[in-house]
Amino acid sequence: MPVIVKGGTVVNSDQSFQADVYCEDGIIQAVGPDMDAPSGVEVFDAGGCYVMPGGIDPHTHMELPFKEKTVPEDFFSGTTAGVVGGTTMIIDFVIPGPEEDVLEKFHKCQSLAEKSCVDYSFHVAITWWNDSVHEAMGVLCRDHGVNSFNHFLAYKNSIMANDEVLVNSFTRARELGALCTVHAESGELVDYYQKKIFDSGITGPEGYPQSRPPQVEGEAANRAIRFAQTIDVPLYLVNNSCSHSMNEIARARREGQRVFGEVLTSHLILDDSVYLNPDFEFAAAHVTSPPFRPKANLEALWRGLQSGDIQTTASDHRYFSAEQKSIGKEDFRKIPEGTAGIEDRMNVLWTHGVNTGRLTANEFVAVTSANTAKIFNIYPRKGLVAEGSDADLSILDPQASQTISGKNHHQNVGFNVFEGMELKGVNVATVSNGNIVYKEGDIRTERDAGRYIDRPCFASYYSAIEKRSSATGPTSVDRS
Fold first, then answer.
1. The CATH number of domain 54-385+453-463, selected from 3.40.50.300, 3.20.20.140, 3.40.1350.10, 1.20.1050.10
2. What are the CA-CA distances from residue 332 to residues 99, 195, 275, 281, 284 (Å)?
3. The whole model's pTM is what?
């Protein structure tokens, strides 16, 4: 059924204006003032509300495997929770194990994701290297709309990408016009500090952040940035948690390098005091990678978001149950890493960003959808309320209030790191693919309604890279 959203203020990343929005066949057909509603159209009264592009969460881990099982959240329940919070697209991760066939793993994840109720796409992690991986990257870009390849610098003896993998993968991505993404924590340093902290007698969750100090993130960020600079490939650093990595991004950008940064909403709000709670279950529930940092880092991350050194916000939605976390009760190194957040990402960011004056409403749109769409080359299809764009909308009432509670949230999780937080400014309706899928408490999501979204290679910033590369490439001397 066609939908018309009437009487709201359209907010894009560059401007805001009063307008109605008419959606049909999954596309925004018209944006303008005082439209007449044709018969047979569902009307949503958005008076007093902001009508924004649906959120794009660029970092989720639905149905993540764990010890022959998976995390509790599947693609349908997770994307449904996202819809309640205004998110209409996710970019999840395909993570092959060492020597696991990359294309087979991609197809397995794609099959799992078909139950999504909103649109989705994938980053593909490069965790090992040989000629088959080289070929798979090309197939993924050419035939499957993948334009980003992830590299974990953490997780030694598991999925950590060593320098050889980085050189080969970054070089191949450059040939293909793809974006390299990196989880920046030094696996070698983490391994060293984990042993040191545990051997000192610290075995509980408080040992976790002490074994992954901010310096290990800063070192890895700098290393990834310098590799990308040398190979001349664009770089996106995921889940920055501290000033150390953010400062490396800022320096690289001021040197003219194409480096982008992401921050999790939780890293903007929570600090490392959560690990000192005497209740193991509470402290372990906050174990995530990177860990929550000392308070001074929170304001630094907000400044990074304000200044544009960090461009996107994500949830890194990856929840492990209390039972799964309890495997590390006697050894913090065994606690599985992850927290939830897809449902609350945008509402929390509005309350603590827009309501405090840290962000404008337009900047909010930039960091929750538009910048992600541009970086991953799906703009203006996504991230924009305009004629011809996908009909994905988040309708936020700035006067609506809500208290976050695990008792009434829609994520399939037992613990919410934002428990008890008072929100002002809440998503009250969501349109996905032209259908109202959430309306003031009424959830209308359907399994399999989401579409896999191709993301073409050679985003617009590649043209700038090519021009600079041609002007600064290797030179030879004719000595004949």
1. 3.20.20.140
2. 28, 11, 11, 12, 8
3. 0.97
